[in-house]
Write a structure and sequence with these properties.
Keywords: Signal. The chain is mainly β and 125 residues long. It contains 1 helix and 9 strands.
């Protein structure tokens, strides 16, 4: 009989505890971290150098909803001294709304030198 009363007491206390709803917590609705995918297609020009660039992985600091500043990799098709090639460039980048301004640097292995250019692109989501 004691066992039955003890079991009944435990079952009723569990249903009382599990029946409680947690208090709603207020949230501000704004997240400090934002992840997303975006692309960029641009053109850059330098001394005897022309390239079509696409936006690669980048690290940005969001200043406000319109302005971003960062650095990233730019996979590119280029024409350098009349020769066509593909190369990965590294570039500081400033974004304003849908426009991207960047200065990519490319290392040319055959001549062991860095080639730079200045470019502008269009961002899409």
């Amino acid at each position: 009989m004691k066992f039955l009363l003890l079991a009944l007491l435990l079952i009723s206390s569990q249903s009382f505890v599990l029946g409680q709803e947690p208090a709603p917590q207020e949230t501000s609705g704004k997240s400090m971290v934002d992840f997303g995918l975006e692309g960029m297609l641009g053109v850059s020009v330098g001394p005897d150098f022309y390239a079509v660039n696409v936006g690669g992985p980048s690290l940005f600091l969001n200043i406000n909803p319109d302005w971003k500043v960062g650095v990233g990799a730019l996979p590119s098709l280029y024409v350098y001294e009349g020769k066509l090639g593909a190369r990965l460039g590294v570039a500081p980048r400033v974004d304003y709304r849908k426009l991207a301004f960047f200065v990519p640097f490319f290392h040319m292995d055959s001549q062991d030198q860095w080639v730079w250019s200045v470019g502008m692109g269009y961002k899409f989501h």
